[in-house]
Amino acid sequence: MPLDSEKKRLEARLLTLLNQALRERNRDDIVATSLELGALYYSGDLYDRSEEYLRGVLEEPVVQLARAEEKAQAEAGIARVLLTRGHLTLAREALERAEKHLDEPDEVMLEIRKLRWEHDLLAGRYDDVVEAITDTLAEESLDSLGDTRVDIMILEARARRLLGGNRDAARFLEKALEMAERAGYEAGTADARSELGALLTALGQFKRAQELLTEA
């Protein structure tokens, strides 16, 4: 999928910034811009380009400039690409490398955990996902999770649906949608509407499902 006009403008700005940072040997901008380009290309389904820039952070000479957290971000981004392509073993190995770069929990570690749950869903370990997410939601504060709480609840709903608990899944998605709308979290709102719309279609609630899928 080609980048839309807004993303193309962002791509141009980032490439200009990266070229300037390379000329000036600006450590912070070289690494940060490479990570941003990796995320941008992933959002446009340009997985080869995404992986290219993310791997660039982990290769010489840039790897010498990257902080541990940035290396973890790059590995997590590569894992996301690999999961999208269905390469579960390689994705798991990338997540293991990402974890080794981090000494204590932070936002990057939370993202790694979320990717691990996505991996386990694809691997069919639905019960493990429900248990791990339930524990996380019980242990972590709302402030520490932020908008990621919505993403996590959507993952739990997906696991419960795959276990046959459609009504439990619908309940989780309704709550996730409510939280996302209240927080103004547009990406989470769209994801929750899409997941809930598909689920309600399966449950025969076609009018509500159509409304959600149209809004998504």
Question: Could you characterize the architecture of this molecule?
Answer:
Helix 2 (27-43) packs antiparallel against helix 3 (47-57) and helix 6 (107-122) packs parallel to helix 9 (148-162). This protein has 216 residues and is mostly helical. 37% of the residues are buried. The chain is 80% helix and 0% strand. The protein has helices at 5-24, 27-43, 47-57, 68-85, 88-100, 107-122, 126-139, 142-145, 148-162, 166-183, 186-202, 206-215.
Biggest beta sheet summary: none
Tally of contiguous helical segments: 12
- Structural class call reads mainly alpha
* Large-scale geometry: globular
Give the termini separation. Answer: 19 Å
According to DSSP, the number of beta strands is 0
Q: Percentage of helical residues?
A: over 70%
As residue ranges, the low-confidence spans are: none
* CA-atom Rg in angstroms: 19 Å
- Beta content comes to under 5%
- Taking all residues together, what is the mean pLDDT? 93
Encode the helix/strand succession as letters.
HHHHHHHHHHHH
Topology overview:
Blueprint: H1 5-24, H2 27-43, H3 47-57, H4 68-85, H5 88-100, H6 107-122, H7 126-139, H8 142-145, H9 148-162, H10 166-183, H11 186-202, H12 206-215
Structure keywords:
single chain; 216 residues
Give a quick precis of the structure:
This protein has helices at 5-24, 27-43, 47-57, 68-85, 88-100, 107-122, 126-139, 142-145, 148-162, 166-183, 186-202, 206-215.
